[in-house]
From TrEMBL:
This is Flavin reductase family protein. Keywords: Oxidoreductase. Belongs to the non-flavoprotein flavin reductase family. GO terms for molecular function: FMN binding; riboflavin reductase (NADPH) activity. It comes from Peribacillus psychrosaccharolyticus (Bacillus psychrosaccharolyticus). PANTHER family: FLAVIN REDUCTASE (PTHR30466), FLAVIN-DEPENDENT MONOOXYGENASE, REDUCTASE SUBUNIT HSAB (PTHR30466:SF11). Residues 15-158 form the Flavin reductase like domain. SMART domains: Flavin_Reduct. The keyword Oxidoreductase applies. The lineage of its organism: Bacteria, Bacillati, Bacillota, Bacilli, Bacillales. Pfam families: Flavin_Reduct (PF01613).
Amino acid sequence: MNSNTEQVARFKEVLGNYPTGVTVVTTADENGTPVGLTVNSFASVSIDPLLVLWSIDRKVSSFDIFQNTDKFAIHTLADDQAEICTLFASRDIDRFANCEWNLSEHALPIISGSYGVLQCKTFKKVDAGDHLILIGEVIDIEVEKKEPLLYHKRKFGKIPEEFYVTK
């Protein structure tokens, strides 16, 4: 590569062509005010114990809240929740005033209608360049019988029926 700019552009192209699920991560600040953001950097880590990870950009306005939280909820969105993804990626808007949600028994804001929700206690934080990786130990799991929302080439969708192989 000739320049770092070219390398960054190619990096974004490769990762932008990698289909992912769509998640929203939520927590509450020290006053109990719900906070959340759209995240596509989500992965499983371990089965024993149940661990997952996600990363947050240090420039995000809610960075300090997530950096200091001891728990968070990861919502894997359902195929009918593209507007929730867009809402939680928006700036300068009261995200929770514009969606249905409730407070869980773990005092975490839970968005209604998600495909799955993993409530986690913070297990470890890892510095990683311009991001912080948060590893969470899953303490509660909710699943609804829905299709997951996918993101690919800046578009939302679901897994097409013809994708499934039957025997």
